[in-house]
Amino acid sequence: MARVKSRKYTGVYQNKLINGDISYSINYKNTDGKKVWFTVGKKSEGITEIYAYNKRNEFINKIRLGEEPPSIARKKKKQIITLDSVAEESYNLKALHNKNNKLSRRKYEMHISPFLGERNIKSITTEDIQRVQSIHIKKFAPKTVNSVIGELSTVFNYAIDKDIIAKNPTKKVKKLKIDNARERYLSKDEIALLFDYVKDDIQAYLFVMLALTTGARVGALTKLTKRDIDFENKIINILDEKNDERYAAFLYDEKLEQSLRDRTKASKIDTPILQINDANLYEQIKDKVSKILNTLFNKGITNPKHRVVIHTLRHTFASHLAINGTPIFTIQKLLNHKDINMTLRYAKLAPDSGQDMVRNLYK
């Protein structure tokens, strides 16, 4: 049965239910002038027409005072869509379409969720994001901070596509300037010092050796298994999470090859080579190796650009390739860079600076 308007009380309606009970509803206009319906309760629960009428007046008075009726506020609270829930939906959808987005998800979980994850996505402002940016500037290089904000922007774009929000608040956040004038890499003496320090820790030793001989990123190395190593052809299959594809690295260091053979001899084919316990391997490696690098190379150094971090091992691999005269396109292939401009930063280290060409230019 449809709602029946009360003959005595404005804005009060009753609805006779199938079981014979009566349900009371009210309507009123919100701050936007839009008619809102609210179910007060049933007659069997003690609700009467006069009670419903008084509840309507309570709501209207609160709106006049700029307040929101508690019942409506509770209802809205239940409908809040958090940033975490949108991000989760976005990453799950990508995974459903076989897109490897573990690196992106990890970046979100580490750098964004702790600050904004539980917030209503509709309430997050440009100023909120700038505050997160300011916090990260103190800990990370500008390139990393830009990457974090970029990941957040991707989540907001997904929310726009789903009609959850209308605008992306990251659009007005200025990117930090990136200074690649100097890319810190380890010298041969520093490499020797590092190997001597980790020689008795098989996990750290294998990680450092793999990083310096393949140039692979941390996430890729923590996922290496026995299945990924072709000892016969001396090839290591690397999963590049950033570009969502696999590429080949080469196994031509005899010490590394022997260590890997010993390590994988009794291991299961899909067990990560660097796994030693049930802890999160990525976090374990990151924490352990970062502490080692800080101890050896970062005492008294405050400028992030000059500090040695785990990614420095990848720079070291590429830098020494360039120093040894490796063609820039070969370095690009070995690093699996999609953009040659990412690789060109190492060109300045090449021994052939062009001096011989200039010397013989007019002869």
Give structural notes.
With 363 residues, the chain is an alpha+beta fold. The chain folds into 3 domains: 75 residues, Double Stranded RNA Binding Domain (2-Layer Sandwich), CATH 3.30.160; 90 residues, Tyrosine recombinase, N-terminal domain (DNA polymerase, domain 1), CATH 1.10.150.130; 162 residues, hpI Integrase, Chain A, CATH 1.10.443.10. The protein has 16 helices and 7 strands. A 4-stranded antiparallel beta sheet has the order 1-2-3-4, covered by helices on one side. β6 and β7 form a beta hairpin. α9 crosses α13. The mean pLDDT is 88.
What topology does this entry show?
Blueprint: E1 4-5, E2 12-16, E3 22-29, E4 35-42, H1 49-64, H2 70-78, H3 83-96, H4 102-111, H5 113-116, H6 126-137, H7 142-161, H8 188-198, H9 202-214, H10 218-222, E5 229-230, E6 235-240, E7 245-250, H11 254-264, H12 281-297, H13 310-323, H14 328-335, H15 340-343, H16 355-359
Antiparallel strand pairs: 1-2, 2-3, 3-4, 5-6, 6-7
Helix pairs in contact: 3-7, 6-7, 9-13, 13-14
User: Over all CA atoms, what is the radius of gyration?
Assistant: 31 Å
From the 3D coordinates, which CATH architecture of the largest domain would you assign? Orthogonal Bundle
* CATH-assigned fold name of the largest domain: hpI Integrase, Chain A
Q: What is the tally of helical segments? A: 16
What does the average pLDDT come to?
88
Order of helices and strands: EEEEHHHHHHHHHHEEEHHHHHH
The number of E-state strands comes to 7
| Tertiary shape | elongated
Percent helix, as a range, is: 40-55%
Largest sheet: 4 strands, antiparallel
CATH superfamily of the largest domain: Intergrase catalytic core
Strand order of the largest sheet: 1-2-3-4
Quote the beta fraction: 5-15%
CATH class type of the largest domain: Mainly Alpha
Instruction: Output the structural class.
Output: alpha+beta
The oligomeric status of these chains comes to single chain
Number of domains: 3
Distance between the termini: 103 Å
Low-confidence segments, ≥5 residues, pLDDT <50?
none
